[in-house]
Amino acid sequence: MPPVITADGLFKVFGRRPARGVEALRQGRSRAELRDEGLTAAVIDASFSVDPGEIFVVMGLSGSGKSTLIRMVNGLLPATAGELRIGDDVLSAMSPAKIREVRRTRVSMVFQHFALLPHRTVGENAAYGLEVSGVNRAEREQKAAAALEMVGLKGWGGYRPDNLSGGMQQRVGLARALAAGTDVLLMDEAFSALDPLIRRDMQDQLVDLQQRLDKTVLFITHDLNEAMRLGDRIAMMRDGRIEQVGTSDEILNEPANDYVARFIQDVDRSRVLTAGAIMEKPHEVLGDGQGPRTAHRMLRATQNSWLVVLHRDRTPHGVLWEDDVAAAVSAGREDLPWSTVHEMPVVSEDTPIAELFALSAEHLSPLVVVDDKGRFSGVVPRVTLLTAAGVGNGGSGPPPGAVPAPDPDLDDAQAGAR
To answer: At what angle do helices 196-213 and 166-179 cross, to 10 degrees?
Structure first.
């Protein structure tokens, strides 16, 4: 399916004669040089696409241009140059009236500071977008109530916002976006005003709602752990430019440049990487109808001390150790006694590796990884797990122990975040 959001060479320059600033940037002039001339380059030559049903996270420090970018997607700020599309609609070529229509029917926004109307009830706030769109009262109340139930606020529709906690107020903002029934949710630092425990709950709820409703989400954040936890893909921004677009695994393991490598060096990899990201495909697996001689040949070929045994439907049956195979071969058996196939730990592909250590410590055999249908995907041996948790930056980033060149902007921002 075609992308829901497409940005192609976007620029946003503030100041007099912004087109002159775009041309200067294209000729290699720096952001700082334009600032000396009274021009502010907020977004520079940004290109990306967001696929249907994807959570796409734009990650950057303060001043990186991420909030300007989302306001361009929402039609609140026109692009100085480049093209921005919502589906087949080109926002940069639309009249203001058409942009307002797109904003009402295709795109909903969840703001950082809730943006609730204090004199209206929770239900009226959730229905506000529908009211603006001209939906009749009975229908909008029904949709607002359904949206409030989705976010865990059933029964709170008659209360005022000041009766709710901060986390509950943000749920009202999310319910208002869901009630509008748009395909796209834009979330600008939506959880950054919440305390850590409520923030994590909201992250979990967003992922759950996105999976249930198949919404396309463009999420803005300055928190790298939040970006890694939520994003199917992440765009890393710096000084108006997109430095890298990729999955969390790609950014962690193949940073595009020293800036990205430096940014990710303190990420808790054990809570970002998953079993599916680090699993290995064994060269041989044993079918549950195959005998000890076949198992013996496979063990010699792989130099392993174990074999994973699979049912015909590719679901895991257990693990077989070389001592049991040797005993069966020595006894001249044509089949394997199923008492020799031992139980092994099974985890799903999306299990964070932080949750694998206890299982790995309890079992000598590797962890067996399965897909969402319970079919065998691969294994995580203990040495692979330990390596994945302790490895330093890969790709073009500095090796473990290296001291990267100082970056005052990054250091100041990280110090403030701490």
So the answer is: 20
CB 144 within 8 A of CB 115: no
Predicted TM-score (pTM) of this structure: 0.75
Q: How far apart, in whole angstroms, are the C-alpha atoms of residue 239 and residue 124?
A: 40
Helix, strand or coil for residue 413?
A: helix
By the 8 A CB rule, do 232 and 55 touch? yes
**Residue range 276-390, CATH number:** 3.10.580.10
Residue 6 phi/psi, 5-degree rounding, is -135, 125
- Residue 269 corresponds to which amino acid? R
Beta pairing partners, 104: none
100-121, pLDDT tens digit by residue?
888 888 898 888 777 888 899 9
Question: Which residue pairs from 339-347 have beta carbons closer than 8 angstroms and sit at least 24 positions apart in sequence?
Answer: 341/288, 341/309, 341/317, 342/318, 343/318, 343/319, 344/308, 344/316, 344/318, 344/319, 344/368, 346/316, 346/370, 347/275, 347/380
Of the options 2.170.16.10, 3.40.50.1010, 3.40.50.300, 3.30.70.100, the CATH number for the domain spanning 5-106+182-267: 3.40.50.300
pLDDT digits (tens, 9 = 90+) for 140-155: 999 999 999 999 899 9
Cβ(27)–Cβ(48) below 8 Å: no
pLDDT at 390 (0 to 100): 66
